[in-house]
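Hello Y.,

Per our agreement to keep a running log of every chain we model this quarter, I'm adding this entry. I've kept the format consistent with earlier entries: sequence first, then predicted structure.
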Amino acid sequence: MGKRYVIPFLLFLFLDCRNEEMDKTTENLLWLMIARSAGVTYNNGASLVFTKNAPGSYAPSVFNETVMASFTIQPGLTNSLSMDIHSGIISGTPTQSSGKLPYTVNFNQGRAYARLNIQVEETAGSGACNETGVHIGCTDSQPFSCTDRQTVCFKTLLACRRDTNCY
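Predicted structure for the entry above:
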């Protein structure tokens, strides 16, 4: 039974049993199971940004999990990046720049998962959107861009950060 079905099922079971006698230990155990859902995240939910031809790594933040960890990632990593299946660390020295690509990391056979984007910028900081002023080649009406995407300008900083080549 998937995580998204277990919690509602346990809550239903708990509420259904309120009409009958339930010992305090069972009730506490149910509340503990509901409250202790496992979780995993990378980079506080922001894209993982690597730099072409430079080593880099990102470790997951795992919470509410006490058993031995195992990780998988879909689709499989390419571009000289890999994941340690025991620690969840994503690392490597990518050889090609790329825009944001979506991945899903499964933790402990689906007890939790994280959706993330991995981006490889051409040089350090070249994917960062300018936060002030007008980017080179842009106008006052569309001042935002990043070095990896010089030919495209954006009206808002948020639009720039949503672009596949910028952050």
